[in-house]
Amino acid sequence: MGLNRWLTLGFLGLLFITSCSEDPDVLFSKAETEAALGSRQKALNYLMDIQKSSPDYTEAYLFAAQLFFEDNNLTEAVNQCKQGLDADADSAMVLRYIGEIYHLSGSIENAYQYYRLAVTANADNVDAQISLGNILNDKDLYDQALTHYDHALELDSANYDATIGKAITLTNSGETAAAITLLEAAIEDQPMDGPAYGALAMAQENTSLEDQAILDNYALSVKLASKNQSVWEAYVAFMMDGQETKAAIKVLQNYLYHFPNAIDGRHHLAELYLDLAQIESLSWLDAARQQCEQALITDTNDHYSHGLLARIYLLQEKPRLAILEAQLAFEINPNTQYRELIDQAKFFSN
């Protein structure tokens, strides 16, 4: 009886220990589920448990960093990654992710430095090679960027992101024909992935191809990959460059549906409504005003929207409001254009 009792207690103790040190993969899956349900703190609790029980579990630091970054806590996001480095997590993965955080925050030079460190830590990390290629392309260092894309493709010849990155860099460096050849092959291999169609449209802008074929590729790209903001921005730029006004408005409306905080998009849409107001009816001015007001909700220091509002109020024969908006624009960004707008509004107020 005594022996059986001790065996039973030992078995129960083993179960207790096992339950206290749950498989990190299981905990990580639970963290993903909680995050998807909107329970970020519960997700972070699971991730912290993993960091304690399995300190070299790289994904626990990266996912925690992602959650903090999505909450606009850049400092803690970077701290999570640095804790991963201290805990001997995969250094190339962690360094690359720090670079990604800085890249998304607009800090290009910091992003470049961390991407470079990631490649130094592990030259065979395909994602690090691609990220470094992307940032070098952003810095207009095309030959260097191509070196890293080629290295990534040597490691993984079918890598879609490396192919797209290389093609965009070839386009930027003036090698349009080579870019198009690469992109057509990518589309043939993966016809349901959107980025290649967008990159192809960008390259085709440098050719004599009819606009409609380019527009079709942009439209298909954003349909298949609606969250790819860089393609949307290229699409919008193409629409603003001489395309029919109401067609451009539809594209911008769709863009802002996916990216409501894209201030440049709101500026473009307000300008198009202003154009329609001067061509068709002043009733379009209210739509232009609404876009400016939305932009100012996102950024109260958006001088361009204040300037646009001044122009709108002048057309609506509300010079006092035009003076106010022009003065606000000038206070934020003193320049000759806004000074002249103030003078024009004052002239009509007399």
Terminal CA distance: 106 Å
Instruction: State the CATH superfamily name of the domain at 253-350.
Output: Tetratricopeptide repeat domain
**Which class do the helix and strand fractions yield?**
mainly alpha
Shape: globular
Major sheet description: none
CATH class category label of the domain at 253-350:
Mainly Alpha
Which percent band covers the strand fraction?
Answer: under 5%
If you had to describe this structure to a student in words, what would you say it looks like?
The chain is mostly helical and 350 residues long. It has a domain at 253-350: Tetratricopeptide repeat domain (Serine Threonine Protein Phosphatase 5, Tetratricopeptide repeat), CATH 1.25.40.10. It is 79% helix and 0% strand. It contains 20 helices and no strands. The longest helix has 19 residues, at 2-20. The N and C termini lie far apart (106 Å). Residues 11-20 have low confidence and may be disordered.
Give me a quick take on this structure.
This protein is mainly α.
Question: What keyword list fits this structure?
Answer:
globular; Serine Threonine Protein Phosphatase 5, Tetratricopeptide repeat; 350 residues; mainly alpha; 0% strand
